[in-house]
TrEMBL record, chain A:
Transmembrane segments: 6-22, 51-67, 79-97, 117-136, 332-350, 371-388, 413-433, 445-463
Family to which this protein belongs: Belongs to the membrane-bound acyltransferase family.
Pfam families found in the cross-reference section: MBOAT
Protein name: MBOAT family protein
PANTHER family found in the cross-reference section: ACYLTRANSFERASE (PTHR13285), PROTEIN-CYSTEINE N-PALMITOYLTRANSFERASE RASP (PTHR13285:SF18)
Keywords of this entry: Acyltransferase, Cell membrane, Membrane, Transferase, Transmembrane, Transmembrane helix
Automatic annotation (TrEMBL), chain B:
Lineage of producing organism: Bacteria, Pseudomonadati, Bacteroidota, Flavobacteriia, Flavobacteriales
Protein known as: SGNH/GDSL hydrolase family protein
Top-rank taxon: Bacteria
C-alpha cells in the first residue's frame, strides 16, 4: 500500500478509529490491531511475502530467547550466527543472488572460461533490507546484553512489522521502538497535530517535489545522449531533489503516522542539502541507516581508533557496504566508493567533525563562506547521485561524458518555470525550517492558509503526475 | 481527542468549501479535447439529415476533406473522428445510437484497432470526453463505468487547476477544425514524417491475432444503426507505404469473411507514398488528403449504390 494512494487514505482512518475508539485502554488488543493492520498494509503488494516477515520474526524471537537462556558465550555466539545466517541468507538470496551469478559468469567469460549458470526469476520483496536490518539489530543488541529479549510474541511481531516504517524505514532500534509497545498509550493532541503536519509535509515532498522532478529525470537519464550539458546538469540536480523528496518524504509520513498511534520514531533526515561538508551530509542523510552501520559494522571494526590505515580501511568498508545495501548493482557500489573518497580527506585532516552544528545558526542568511561550503557539498553529492541513478556504470560515465561535451546541436530540456518555482519554494521552506521538523507559523490564519495551500498542491500534483512508487521501496 | 477531531473536521470543511467556491465560479468549457467536443455537436444537434457521418481515429481527423466529399457526393458529410485513445466500443455505440433515419455512418478504423483487445481501461482522453458530456456515460461498458467513477475526483482537481491556469495564461494549444470537423492546422505546415524501415505489422508484432471484441463491437454498431433506420459501412484507412504490410489485407479479409458487415473499397487503394505523409503513418499532407478524398468519393459512389 502506498502512502500516497486512495487505499491508504481509507486504511488509515479505519485503523486510527479502531485503535483509539474501540480498543482504547486495551494495550494488548491495540498491539494486535497494529500487527494485523501491518500485515494488511504489507500484503497489499504481495501477500505471499508475508510469510518471509513472519518467518524472520519467529526466527529472531526464538533465537533471542534461546540466546538469553544460553549459559556460555560460545552458545550465545552460536545463536547469533544462526540469526545472521538466516537473515542475511534471505536478504542475499532475494536481493543479490542474480547479481553474484551474473558477476561470476562475466568474470569467467572475461578470462576465457565458459560458464553456463542460469539466473533465477526472483522478485525482490518490498522493504526486505529495512526489516532485516531492524530484526538483526534486535538480535545483536540481545547478544551484546544491551536489551532483554522480548517475551511477548505479539509485541515483537508488531515491532518487526510496524506498518508506518516497515517498507522504507526509519530502521528502528529495538531499544527505542520495542519498549513503546509495552507502554500504555494515551492520546496526545500535540503529538497528533505534529504528526498530521509531518504527514502533509512528507506528502508535499513526495507528490509535489519528487514526482514532478521524476518526470524530467526519467526522460533525461534514459536519453542522455540527446541532451546538451545544461540539461544533463539539470537532470542530475532534479534527481538530487527527487531522491531527497521521495525518501525524506516517506520518512516524514512514517514518523507522522506513527505519532498518530502514540509512537515516536527516530529522525531520519536533518536537511542534508544544507551540509557544509560530506561528513556533515552523512550525519544528516538516512540517519537510521548510517547509525546502524556505525554501531554494528564500523565500531566493531575499530571505528576511528587504530592506525591511519585501519581508519581508512574502515571508512571504505562502511561506504562500500552502504552502497551494496542499496542494491545489487555496481552503480551503488561505485556511489559508495565515491562517497568514501570524498570523506577520506576530511578524515586525514581530522576535520570530519568540524561542522556539528546547524549552518548559519542564529542567522537568517549564511555567510559567503558557508554558502560556498553548502553549494560545493551539494555539487559533489549530486555528482555521486549520477552513479546512483544510472542503469549501469557505462550509462553513468556516458552521462558524465556528455555533460562535458560542448555541442550546440543537442536538445535543451527541463528548464520549466513551474518546476523551478516549486524547487525555489521548497528550498526556502527547508532553509527556514533547518532547525525544526516543519514550518511553525504562530499566526493561526497564516498557518491555515499554509496547510490548505500545501494540501491543494498535493492533490493537484497527485492528480497530474501518475502515482509513483517510493524509490527506496526497491532497497 | 475531541479537540483533534474537531480540528481535522474543520480543516476538511474549510478545504472543501474553498475548493467548491473556486470550482463553481469557473467554466469547464476550456477543459479537454476541444476539437472532439466540437465534433460531437454534429451528431447531437439536428444538423441536416440525411447526412453521412464519418468516424475513425486520427486518420479520419487529419486525412479527409469533408467539404470536398460533400460537394462530390451532393450530400452533407461530417467528420466525427475521435483520437484512438477513445475506446472503439464507446465511439461506435455513441455514434450509432445518435443516428437518425436515412443517415449513413461510415466507420474507417485504423489497422491497429483490429488487433486491440478492449481491456476496459479508461484513457485520460476518454475520461475527459465523458466528463465534458456526462450524457455519454451510458455508452461505456460496466467495467469502464466503474473505472470512470473512480477517476472523477482526479478530473475535478485537474479541471479546477486547468481553469486557474487559464486565468493567468491565455495560451491554449489545440488543433483547429473546420466547420465539418476536419483538422486543418496541419495543412499549412511542412511534413515531418520520415520513411520507416519496418512495417507497422512488424513493429507491433501483430502476428494474425485479430480482436474478436472489435468484430463484436462493429456488429453491435451495425445493429444499432439499422434499428435507427440508418446504414453502417466500413472502409479502409490511408497509410504510409513504408508502414503498410500485405498481412493487414490478408488478416482483414479473414476478419470480414461471412461477417455480414458492409465494406467499401480495397486496402490497397489507400496506400500513399511516404512523401504524402504529414507526421504519422495515418496522417496525410494537404495533397495526400485531397487524393484520399477523391478515392473515397469513388468508393462511396460505387459502394453506396450497391446497397
Amino acid at each position: 500500500m502506498l502512502f500516497n494512494s486512495l487505499a491508504f487514505l481509507i486504511f488509515l482512518p479505519i485503523v486510527f478509529s479502531c485503535y483509539w475508539f474501540l480498543l482504547q485502554k486495551q494495550l494488548r488488543y491495540q498491539n494486535i490491531l497494529i500487527l494485523g493492520a501491518s500485515y494488511v498494509f504489507y500484503g497489499w503488494w504481495d501477500w505471499r511475502f508475508l510469510s518471509l516477515i513472519i518467518f524472520s520474526t519467529i526466527v529472531d524471537y526464538s533465537v533471542a530467547k534461546a540466546m538469553h537462556k544460553a549459559t556460555s558465550d560460545s552458545k550465545r555466539k552460536y545463536f547469533l550466527y544462526i540469526s545472521l545466517a538466516i537473515n542475511l541468507g534471505l536478504l542475499g538470496f532475494f536481493k543479490y543472488f542474480n547479481f553474484f551469478i551474473e558477476s561470476w559468469v562475466d568474470l569467467s567469460q572475461s578470462i576465457g572460461l565458459r560458464a553456463n549458470i542460469s539466473t533465477l526469476s526472483i522478485i525482490l520483496p518490498v522493504g526486505i533490507s529495512f526489516y532485516t536490518f531492524q530484526t538483526l539489530s534486535y538480535t545483536i543488541d540481545v547478544y551484546r546484553r544491551k536489551i532483554e529479549p522480548e517475551t511477548d510474541i505479539i509485541k515483537f511481531s508488531a515491532f518487526v512489522a510496524f506498518f508506518p516504517q516497515l517498507v522504507a524505514g526509519p530502521i528502528e532500534r529495538a531499544s527505542n521502538l520495542l519498549p513503546q509497545f509495552s507502554l500504555k498509550r494515551t492520546f496526545s493532541y500535540e503529538k497528533a497535530v505534529s504528526g498530521v503536519q509531518l504527514i502533509l509535509w512528507g506528502l508535499f515532498k513526495k507528490v509535489v517535489i519528487a514526482d514532478s522532478c521524476a518526470t524530467y529525470v526519467n526522460i533525461i537519464f534514459e536519453n542522455s545522449e540527446n541532451y546538451n550539458s545544461s540539461t544533463l546538469i539539470l537532470g542530475a540536480i532534479f534527481f538530487a531533489f527527487q531522491i531527497y523528496g521521495d525518501f525524506s518524504g516517506y520518512s516524514d509520513i512514517a514518523i507522522g503516522v506513527a505519532r498518530l498511534f502514540g509512537f515516536d520514531l527516530m529522525t531520519n533526515f536533518k536537511k542534508p542539502y544544507f551540509s557544509r561538508d560530506i561528513a556533515e551530509f552523512w550525519r544528516r542523510w538516512h540517519i537510521s541507516l548510517s547509525t546502524w552501520f556505525r554501531d554494528y559494522v564500523y565500531i566493531p571494526l575499530g571505528g576511528s581508533k587504530g592506525s591511519l590505515g585501519i581508519k581508512i580501511r574502515n571508512v571504505f568498508i562502511i561506504f562500500l557496504v552502504s552502497g551494496f545495501w542499496h542494491g545489487a548493482n555496481l552503480t551503488f557500489i561505485f556511489w559508495g566508493l565515491l562517497n568514501a573518497l570524498f570523506f577520506i580527506p576530511l578524515l586525514l585532516l581530522n576535520k570530519n567533525r568540524s561542522n556539528t552544528n546547524t549552518v548559519a545558526e542564529n542567522h537568517v542568511f549564511p555567510s559567503l563562506y558557508e554558502l560556498y561550503q553548502v553549494v560545493s557539498t551539494f555539487i559533489i553529492v549530486t555528482f555521486a547521485w549520477i552513479f546512483f541513478r544510472a542503469e549501469n556504470l557505462k550509462a553513468a560515465f556516458t552521462y558524465l561524458q556528455h555533460i562535458f561535451e560542448w555541442t550546440t546541436d543537442k536538445i535543451t530540456y527541463g528548464w520549466n518555470l513551474e518546476i523551478l518555482i516549486l524547487l525555489i519554494l521548497f528550498i526556502v521552506i527547508e532553509w527556514v525550517t533547518r532547525t525544526k521538523e516543519t514550518l511553525q507559523l504562530q499566526n493561526p490564519y497564516f498557518r491555515w492558509i499554509y496547510y490548505i495551500g500545501i494540501t491543494q498542491l498535493i492533490l493537484f500534483y497527485g492528480a497530474k503526475n501518475n502515482v509513483v512508487d517510493f524509490i527506496y521501496f526497491q532497497f | 481527542m475531541k479537540q483533534f477531531l474537531k480540528k481535522i473536521t474543520l480543516f476538511g470543511i474549510v478545504f472543501i468549501v474553498v475548493n467548491a467556491l473556486i470550482f463553481v465560479s469557473l467554466q469547464r468549457e476550456s477543459f479537454g479535447l476541444v476539437t472532439e467536443n466540437n465534433r460531437t455537436s454534429f451528431i447531437e444537434n439536428q444538423v441536416h439529415t440525411p447526412k453521412i457521418i464519418i468516424s475513425g481515429g486520427s486518420n479520419v481527423g487529419y486525412s479527409l476533406d469533408s467539404e470536398l466529399l460533400s460537394k462530390n457526393l451532393q450530400q452533407e458529410v461530417y467528420n466525427v473522428s475521435f483520437s484512438i485513445s477513445h475506446d472503439y466500443e464507446y465511439v461506435l455505440n455513441y455514434i450509432a445510437s445518435s443516428l437518425k433515419k436515412n443517415d449513413t455512418f461510415l466507420y474507417i478504423p485504423e489497422y491497429d484497432q483490429y488487433y486491440i483487445n478492449n481491456e476496459n481501461t479508461m484513457s485520460d482522453a476518454l475520461c475527459v470526453s465523458i466528463y465534458n458530456k456526462p450524457s455519454t456515460f451510458q455508452y461505456l461498458n460496466f467495467q469502464q463505468k466503474i473505472n470512470f467513477l473512480t477517476k472523477v475526483p482526479k478530473l475535478n482537481i485537474l479541471l479546477l487547476y486547468k481553469n486557474l491556469k487559464h486565468l493567468v495564461s491565455n495560451k491554449t494549444i489545440m488543433l483547429k477544425t473546420d466547420n465539418r470537423g476536419d483538422y486543418v492546422t496541419h495543412l499549412e505546415q511542412s511534413a515531418t514524417w520520415k520513411k520507416s524501415a519496418i512495417t507497422r505489422y512488424e513493429k507491433y508484432k501483430y502476428d494474425h491475432k485479430l480482436s474478436n471484441q472489435f468484430k463484436n463491437a462493429l456488429l453491435k454498431a451495425q445493429k444499432i444503426a439499422e434499428s435507427n433506420g440508418a446504414i453502417f459501412y466500413i472502409s479502409y484507412p490511408s497509410i504510409a507505404q513504408s508502414q503498410y504490410d500485405e498481412r493487414f489485407s490478408k488478416d482483414l479479409k479473414k476478419f470480414y469473411k461471412n461477417s455480414g458487415l458492409k465494406l467499401i473499397g480495397q486496402p490497397e487503394t489507400y496506400i500513399f507514398s511516404d512523401d504524402l505523409i504529414f507526421d504519422h503513418p495515418y496522417h496525410l499532407t494537404k495533397e495526400g488528403r485531397k487524393k484520399r478524398t477523391q478515392f473515397l468519393t469513388k468508393d462511396i459512389q460505387k459502394g453506396f449504390t450497391q446497397k
